[in-house]
Amino acid sequence: MGKSQKKIKPPKAEMPLDENAIGNDLDKEISVYRGKVIHYVTELEYLTELAILNYFKLTESDELLKTFVYSFFTSESFGLHTKHSILSYIITNIFPDFREQHPHLLDTFGELITLRNRYAHSKVIRPYSNDYKIYMLAQVKTKRSKPDIHTSLLNEKTLQIFYGKYWSVKTELDLLIKIIRDRNGSKWKKALV
Questions:
Q1: Among 6, 42, 48, 132, which lies 20 to 30 A Cα-Cα from 59?
Q2: 148-181: string of b/e by CB count within 10 Å (b at 16+)?
Q3: Residue ranges of the domains in the chain?
């Protein structure tokens, strides 16, 4: 190569579109969407804990037991799915009338838990549509040694659907807690005095 000839560098290969290539504005928007879902499901988890604690009549006078149960509830090995299973048992076996009056509570709550996990653990693979601010998220799991890909859309419309389900579950959990406290009746009131 002579002095007048410059070595031409090959163009850099384009990076596949992911959260690093999308840009700060989209990263922030996606984080806000994810954060809202995680926040609201965490509120439902707290209400689930309250329902369970109230069912077992753990009051202020049971401080040591309450501290133990709370630390057990918040440990990593005692996740939301386990709390949902305990709640399901209580509703199905102890409050069958409530279950009949609110037949979709547990399934809808289960859907919100699944959605929360998908939003929290999925990778943004590309904007699905820039015009409508829709994002595609993908989560790969192994099922019987084969990759199993779950995709979810994330946008304002999916959040509105989520909010509707969230308020339904929250309202029903609030009612269940009230029913449990009323059932405990005077024992509950005496323990608080």
A1: 42
A2: eeeeeebbeebbeebeebbebbeebbeebbeebb
A3: 19-121+157-182
Question: In the beta sheet, which residues pair with residue 62?
Answer: none
Of 107, 120, 140, the closest CA to residue 42 belongs to 120
- The Cα-based distances of 144 to 71, 139, 147, 151 in angstroms read 35, 16, 8, 19
- Name the residue type at position 69: V
Dihedral sign, Cα of residue 157, residue 161, residue 167, residue 173: negative
More confident residue, 77 or 107: 107
Residue 10 burial (CB < 10 Å; 0-12/13-18/19+)?
exposed
Note the pLDDT tens digit of each residue in 66-102: 677 767 766 777 888 989 999 999 999 999 999 999 9
24 CB-contact burial (10 Å; exposed 0-12 / middle 13-18 / buried 19+): exposed
Element housing 30 (H / E) = helix 24-55
From CA 143, how far away is CA 163, in angstroms rounded? Answer: 31
Question: Reduced to 3 states, what is the DSSP secondary structure of residue 73?
Answer: helix
| CB atoms inside a 10 Å sphere around CB 105 | 21
The string of pLDDT tens digits covering residues 92-101 is 999 999 999 9
What residues contact residue 173 under an 8 Å CB cut-off, 6+ apart? 44, 47, 48, 51, 105
